[in-house]
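Entry 12.
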Amino acid sequence: MNQVRSKDGTTIAFDVQGAGPDVILVDGALTGRSSGSKRELVRLLAQRLTVYTYDRRGRGDSGDTQPYAVEREIEDIAALIGEAGGSAFLYGHSSGGCLALDAAVSLDGMVKKLAMYEAPYNDDSQARSDFREYVKNLTAALGSGRRGDAAALFMGLVGMPAAGIDGMRREPFWAGLEALAPTLAYDHGGVMGEDGSIPTNRVARVHAPTLVMVGGNGARFMLETAKTLTRTIPDARLQTLEGQDHNVQPQALAPVLLEFLSA
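Predicted 3D structure (tokens):
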């Protein structure tokens, strides 16, 4: 494990693997630098790239200086880019794609290319209303220390049925999700805003070449969002990964990323 100090003094934990051009992987909600299939994705990418994985602030081995602001998370990425020599590629999954997009705008010139997989913005009016209600309930749960309820709200947001959530709450891994629950507010209400809609004015300010990816088996709104992002970002192209859903398999993702980042 390596550490770098962000602009506000927060310590950010990261790992580095591989050799070649530098890419920083930006996680979505409730995940960290060693979560799930990340290790396999890193192994595949590290054959041709230098891969940085890190714990976003408030997660894992990284610190968490209050009050939170999206700008502080962008400074964390800037600190990692500094470790990489001053410029790097960014790849973000889910809400991590939204953060990577924000970083590409704020750190223009430092981000050489941007890749995103299923950034979950949604312009549908009912979805925006539901998201605002979710953020309100999430804020209330976290404010009263009900981390488990906050994690359950997120699982409901992404479509997990109530019976499935109840079962998850009895599993040993649930304690880890509760530990990360406060950072849900960093993604929802923070990075994704209060209603989860596409921030088109900001999106249009991405100057880095961008790959927008979506799974062929994903939610329909993800494809509509990806199309809007591709139209709005000046230098963007859209690629569908057939047979994939939101939990994209490393074996399907890695070749597409390598082709784009190595071109």
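Annotation: The CA atoms of residues 85 and 222 lie 34 Å apart. The domain at 2-121+198-262 is CATH 3.40.50.1820 (Rossmann fold).
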